[in-house]
Write a structure and sequence with these properties.
The chain has 2 helices and 6 strands; from the N terminus they run E-E-H-E-H-E-E-E. It is mainly β.
Amino acid sequence: MYFEVCIQKHHAGFNMWQTGEANGDGWADEESLVDAIAQNTYEMLELGSNRETEEAEPSSLWDEAHDIRGMIYEEPARVFAIRRTSQNDPIEYVGIVERSRDT
């Protein structure tokens, strides 16, 4: 099962981040979860994606989001920068993790 997790600054600082609890129900298919996250945000960018080949609409996230990969405790395999409802929203970071139903 795949779950969305919020990524927040780690309480100890040192430019580190941490994942929070899983949000919502688990999804059997990772790409369906990515689509659901995208449908519920104003804009979304997968960190590490290639700007030259990205097919999405132009986004200010390319210039404003920080690539925090490598600085996240229990780092998810996929990390996204998002804005929830408008261009003026702060940038948030979320990830996708795979977990069994028991955890």
